[in-house]
Amino acid sequence: MNQDYIKPDNWSIIEEGFDKEQVKSSESLFSIGNGAMGQRANFEENYSGETFQGSYIAGIYYPDKTKVGWWKNGYPKYFAKVLNAPNWIGINIEINGEDFDLNTCTEVSNYRRELNMKEGWYNRSFQATLKNGTEVSVNVRRFLSLDLDEAGVINYEITPLNKDAKIIYKPYIDAGVTNEDANWEEKFWEPLDVKKSGNEAFVTAQTFKTHFKVTTFMQNTIFAKGEKQNLSPTSVDTTADKILFYYDVIAAKGEKSGIQKIGGYTVSLNHTDTVSAAENVIQKALAKGYDQLLQDQIDAWAKIWEMSDITIDGDVKAQQGIRFNIFQLNQTYLGKDSRLNIGPKGFTGEKYGGSTYWDTEAYCIPFYMATKDQQVARNLLTYRYNQLDKAIENAKDNLGFTNGAALYPMVTMNGEECHNEWEITHEEIHRNGAIAFAIYNYHRFTGDYSYIPEKGLEVLIGIARFWHQRASFSKNKNQYMILGVTGPNEYENNINNNFYTNYIAKWCIDYATEQIQKVTAEYPADHKRIIEKVKLSEAELAEWNKVSSNMYFPRSEEMGIYLQQDGFLDKDLVRVKDLDRSQRPINQKWSWDRVLRSPYIKQADVLQCFYFFEDHFSKEELERNFDFYESFTVHESSLSPCVHSIQAALLDKMDMAYAFYLRTSRLDLDDYNKEVEEGCHITSMAGTWMSIVEGFGGMRVKNDALHFSPKIPKEWEGYSFKINFRNQILKIAVDHKETKFTLEGTNELTVYVNGTAVLVQPNH
Question: What one-character-per-residue DSSP string does 48-64 give?
Fold first, then answer.
């Protein structure tokens, strides 16, 4: 843990006291989003201190030319940037002739931020003394509408405390923004048009290269003396990419004034005429009014929480942590649009670029399957199906593969690979397995097989073809191997026979073969269509089987463990507990050469295999491998603690399971890895949900039935969660005495608790 300034609270993220050193971290933690857009919690007014400005629009990106010192064949030509979008929240303020800036105020007191997760709004309040001696009280509330998802609302209120004040509100929209992580310091936005009408303004710009057109808009209403003022701007400043209005208000001592600002984006992904669309959004928002928009927001979040909430009794920090994770997941992706996906930073930062990693398939799909309609998860699968041609192109152009072999990208926005680290792009090929596993996982959980003959089988065939071609035959061992890879542990590059990679490669081939047989027998029309399209023969299937049936898995018979890779036991095996704390995190303290030669593991690797394929191994095998590999794991990936928490719970190591749960749930709130100012770890937050549901709840799907093996940390009095299992809503509540099941609907459901069948009657 590296910070502890966030106040424990069941439903809110709360910061008290103004500390300039915390501004960037809080900008990440108090971020808001609505699935279509999002923004860091930057101040509306000008702030001259250190800040990381960031607003983002789902699906909008820029192909920033890759920058490397030594170009290697196969390098992606660009790194897709999640674009810092035009700024619509800006409201510069002048008070009695002085620019209002918290960085230059002589005193800031009673400072409080609150992100109310239950109702979906962000609030900031404080008192400040300007250098000119004017004391003011400020309260600002902001939210991004879930119902009207192209619009956000700001209610900014100022009360002079010690004297009358002339306040000039200067709301603006600005497309002259840049990314902090630009490779070549390029500007990504080309201004096209600036337009104003009364209290409304519109700046239209488009991205260079990708030509996404975005209209950023605002509408302003001034309030003073307790009522709306019919004020027009006293003046307007306009440039090619920015427009700023001036509103003059005289406020007596103790008299509140304010501005309500409606703003947001309309984009060419959804509209032909983005300006007319923006005008329409403004009219809809004005027709509702601020109070109704806020109430709609509260109601929309209540509906989300009704299904996705997890309650924890007796442990406020644990409760706050899981709700923060669930809240951010729902802010990032709501499943409305199959063109969108879940970026690793969501709407909280720029790091990593891209929209999609293997995180979606490995960690996020279970959350969305269980807490929403299954169509949401199906949309995520469809996203990959729609990019299959690009995956085939990636394998062909970058690796020289043939015959429709598909390598899905490590990072992508549109299906093209856009990760600019060679050892990740071309070596971390295990991501292909996660995409196939997600198809299996979707069918296993939802019971919906239709996706496989309709779309999924083509994906499985492309992936199986990749693994068949990627494996090479060793005459020395008389087995197939997969050489020169990076496993989930990115602290090893270019190693041979990563156990997880080899295992999931074999599984992918076997699973694809099984589905071909099933579709042949049960969906002959689809089988004929697919086989004709991909030109798959029995001879090719036989070649697949040669690889699958004779895959090499590195193993130490003496220790009874699978080896992470061939040479793992040749390392200097100093366990993490014997590593000086001053050396952590090693990725910030050591040279990369030293990291790669060390035994230290960034995240679950062999144990990722045991997580996916738990039923393939005995509990004793899991325990031996867990005890060995966890002792070398530094958990410097956000994806690591959740898998370890689930497996520790399975092994009855409850103190360890609880510690890992806290780490995954409060990874950002407590800034374990000293990097939260760059943004939150959105995709790993789904792993936090899994830590409770699959870890403590012990939920599994076996033979078309739900199984539970409930456990409870001693720190908790009880916990509960809901599951949408095949359109039946089941609530599970666990305390130290019993586990209760409540079923909504009209049909009964049989579940298994510690192996014993239990019939659950609806509403009973």
Answer: -SS----EEETT-EEEE
Three-point CA angle 363, 367, 373, nearest 5°: 135
Residue for token pair 């856009």: 418
Average pLDDT over residues 670-681: 91
> Tokens standing for 314?
């007796």
Is the model's pLDDT at 70 over the cut of 80? Answer: no
204, 271 Cβ separation under 8 angstroms: no
In terms of Cα–Cα distance, which of 426, 420, 427, 422 is closest to 353? 420
What amino acid is encoded at 311 in this protein?
Answer: T
C-alpha distances (whole Å) from 41 to each of 89, 132, 150, 679 are 10, 27, 18, 11
Rounded Cα–Cα distance for residues 94 and 99 (Å): 4
pLDDT of residue 422: 76
Gap between the Cα atoms of 316 and 406, Å rounded: 46
DSSP lists the bridge partners of residue 203 as: 194, 216
- Residues 65, 175: contact at Cβ < 8 Å? no
Q: Give helix 316-332 / helix 274-308 axis angle, nearest 10°.
A: 150
Distance (Å, whole) CA 255 – CA 165: 9
By three-state DSSP, how is residue 395 classified? helix
User: Please, what is the angle between helix 682-690 and helix 316-332, to 10°?
Assistant: 130
Q: Which of 490, 636, 675, 677 is catalytic?
A: 490
Give the position of tokens 């002589």: 106
Q: How far apart are CA 62 and CA 182, in angstroms?
A: 10
374 three-state secondary structure: helix
Collapsed DSSP state (helix, strand, coil) of residue 253: coil
Instruction: Please report the sign of the dihedral spanned by the C-alpha atoms of residue 95, residue 97, residue 99, residue 101.
Output: negative
Per the structure block, which two tokens stand in for 138? Answer: 């400020």
Distance, CA of 565 to CA of 25 (rounded, Å): 37
pLDDT tens profile 340-387:
999 889 999 988 776 789 999 999 999 999 999 999 999 999 999 999
Cα separation, 348 vs 193, in Å, equals: 28
Question: How confident is the model over 260-318, as pLDDT tens digits?
Answer: 999 999 999 999 999 999 999 999 999 999 999 999 999 999 999 999 999 999 999 99
Dihedral sign, CA of 43, 48, 49, 50? positive
The two three-digit tokens of residue 484, written as one number: 């020169």
Give how far the C-alpha of residue 387 lies from the chain's centroid of Cα atoms, to the nearest Å.
20
Maximum separation of any 2 CA atoms in the chain, in Å: 89
Cα 653 to Cα 649: distance, rounded to the nearest angstrom: 6
Strand 749-753 versus strand 705-708 pairing type? parallel
DSSP 615-679: GGS-HHHHHHHHHHHHTTB---STTHHHHHHHHHHHTT-HHHHHHHHHHHHTTTTTTTTS-GGG-
Cβ atoms 637, 602 nearer than 8 A: yes
Checking phi first, is residue 353 left (phi over 0); if not, alpha (psi -120 to 50) or beta?
left
Alpha carbon distance 245, 682 (integer Å): 36
- 668 pLDDT above the threshold of 90: yes
**Residue 688, both tokens:** 């936090």
Q: Find the length of the chain.
A: 764
Annotate 102-129 with DSSP letters as a single string: TTT-SEEEEEEEEEETTTTEEEEEEEEE
Q: Which of 124-138, 197-211, 411-425 has the lowest mean pLDDT?
A: 411-425
Please tell me the number of Cα atoms within 13 Å of 521 on its side-chain side.
5
d(CA 182, CA 189): 12
Tens of pLDDT, residue by residue over 699-746, are: 999 999 999 999 999 999 999 999 999 999 999 999 999 999 999 988
Decide: 117 and 13 in contact? Cβ < 8 Å.
Answer: yes
Q: Rounded to whole angstroms, how far apart are CA atoms 571 and 578?
A: 15
Q: How far apart are CA 517 and CA 32, in angstroms?
A: 47
The pLDDT value given to residue 420: 75
Q: Is 490 a catalytic residue?
A: yes
- Are 85 and 55 a contacting pair, CB within 8 Å? yes
